[in-house]
Specification:
Helix 6 packs across helix 8. The chain is of the alpha+beta class. Strands 1, 2, 3, 4, 5, 6, 7, 8 and 9 form a 9-stranded antiparallel beta sheet that branches. The radius of gyration is 26 Å and the shape is elongated. It has 8 helices and 25 strands.
Length: 514
């Protein structure tokens, strides 16, 4: 459906998209369906509860709430993602709820998906300083569908406040096809070959956290940035969620890559950014995607992830870890997140447990922080933000493990045995996720050892192992129970590694399973 309003704005949009250059190997396609004043005048004539008033679509004065459902809209190509964004005035306590549904044939429809909105509107100017045709729009979460969808509808629920009703001035849908990407088998083979090549290089005299394997931009089919990157040096690391609806319905690396391509398109074509906002993205299967980053690790690409950005790096986790969708981060996702942050912290000499001035933000911030700590947002969602201390502890454990590793070259004499920080920490016994704490030790020589957990009074509550142990690493699991098999109360506990000559102790926090 085209409209007079559409004709007026389409010139801006065409010029805006043309500036971005050609579509690259991934062949990600994108277009905008825009409904404005002319469309809403037609709609109000057929809707008893609505009227067109000063170029806006709104409730009649006698109506407290009503629902508008759009006509069936057909995309110019099959799509797998839709980004809704809308321009509205919300006086008083009035509000809108936007939902989407999609269909392959225009007859059989999926369920309506509620589209939560971001707290900040589209900025007046793009990242390059051009006027953004969607300035002021409220940004809806990106919704994902099966890749054969051709038709879409939007539904807007209007709710009057104490006195005033919402005024909807524009609603646009960015239609995205990101399901066509590079050959996934080629990607996997390349990663395997790289890993084998790395394994033949041997160890160096200086122990460093290894850069985790990741899917490079060319491999996942990234579009080139609209202009050259700017650079910074990272001193803080932010973790995010992508807050995509149906973001978790992925089963293959292909699916994950399609999500990342769609996010890049939404960031570029609606938000007006140079590239995808995050430096890296991680899917629930633990695949790490190189996003707004290049291969030069001597510097870090300036991102667009928390409105401040200078000196900070954003890592996005695919999922909606917050109401109403409440996805749960998988162990694979979290392990990838730990390894990625540990590598960057080690590379930039960042203390994962420390804090310092984040100058661009204007205040002191933890070196590893959630997006919501520097901006009014729910990101990274309650489900992921609750794991912040566990993330920091796990990152520290990885760095400590590498720092005590034995290499082929002479190094200072290490401890005869080492006990690493448990992970996750804290953990929740009896939960479906993080129900065990993993305790890892490293022995330089065979020894008779004992591993036990003690409460804050020094009383032993659980003996995990007692006996002979050979040289190398060993792992022990504690499920949060005592020697009688009962769950211990929540609180601080200490796990102790004892040999005939020495004792090492680490702390673990046990949370209540509600």
């Amino acid at each position: 459906m085209r409209s007079l309003y559409f004709e007026k704005i389409i010139a801006l949009v065409i010029g805006y998209i043309a500036f971005q250059g050609a579509v690259f190997a991934s062949e990600t396609k994108s277009t905008q369906i825009i409904h404005g004043a002319a469309d809403f005048r037609v709609a109000s004539a057929a809707q008893k509860a609505f009227e067109a008033n000063r170029g806006a679509f709104t409730l009649k004065k006698t109506i407290s709430s009503a629902i508008y459902v759009s006509p069936v809209l057909e995309g110019t190509f099959p799509f797998n993602a839709v980004g809704a964004h809308w321009n509205a005035d919300l006086p008083g306590k009035s509000f809108l709820r936007v939902s989407l549904r999609a269909s392959a044939d225009g007859a059989s429809w999926g369920n309506w998906l509620f589209i939560p909105s971001d707290e900040s509107p589209v900025t007046k100017y793009t990242e390059s300083g051009e006027v953004n045709p969607f300035a002021g729009d409220i940004v809806g979460a990106l919704a994902f569908f099966d890749s054969d969808r051709r038709f879409v509808q939007y539904r807007v629920e209007f709710f009057r406040g104490d006195e005033f009703a919402p005024d909807l001035r524009r609603l646009a849908l960015q239609i995205i096809r990101s399901s066509d990407g590079p050959d996934i088998e080629t990607i996997l083979q390349k990663k395997e070959n790289e890993a084998l090549q790395h394994a033949t290089k041997g160890h160096t005299a200086i122990a460093k956290v290894e850069k985790p394997s990741m899917v490079k931009r060319a491999d996942w089919g990234a579009q080139a940035p609209r202009y050259n990157y700017s650079y910074t040096i990272v001193k803080h690391i932010a973790f995010h969620h992508t807050a995509g609806v149906s973001d978790y319905n992925v089963s293959t690396l292909d699916d994950c890559a399609a999500r990342v391509r769609a996010i890049q398109s939404y960031h570029r074509n609606t938000l007006g950014w140079n590239d995808i906002g995050y430096a890296y993205a991680i899917c629930k299967q633990g695949h790490i995607f190189q996003a707004r980053e290049d291969d030069n690790d001597n510097h870090d690409v300036y991102g667009a992830h928390d409105s401040h950005n200078a000196g900070s790096q954003g890592i996005a986790n695919l999922g909606y870890f917050h109401p109403p969708y409440n996805h749960q981060p998988t162990p694979e996702l979290l392990n990838a997140l730990y390894r990625l942050i540990a590598w960057k912290c080690d590379e930039r000499n960042i203390d994962p447990q420390g804090k310092s001035l984040y100058a661009a933000y204007g205040g002191t911030v933890d070196h590893i922080y959630g997006h919501q700590e520097v901006r009014a947002t729910a990101c990274p969602g309650d489900g992921l933000f609750a794991l912040k201390q566990s993330i920091k502890d796990s990152v520290e454990a990885i760095i400590e493990k590498v720092a005590t590793a034995i290499t082929d070259e002479p190094l200072p004499v290490p401890e005869k045995f080492t006990i690493m920080q448990s992970y996750p920490n804290p953990f929740t016994p009896g939960s479906s996720l993080h129900k065990n704490a993993t305790i890892q030790i490293s022995l330089q020589h065979p020894a008779f050892i004992q591993i036990a957990v003690h409460n804050i009074l020094g009383q032993a509550v659980r003996k995990l192992y007692q006996g002979a142990a050979n040289t190398g690493e060993r792992h022990f699991l504690w499920d949060g129970t005592d020697d009688a098999g009962q769950f211990v109360p929540p609180g601080v506990y200490f796990y102790r590694l004892s040999t005939e000559q020495n004792v090492r102790i680490k702390k673990v926090l046990v949370l209540m399973n509600r």
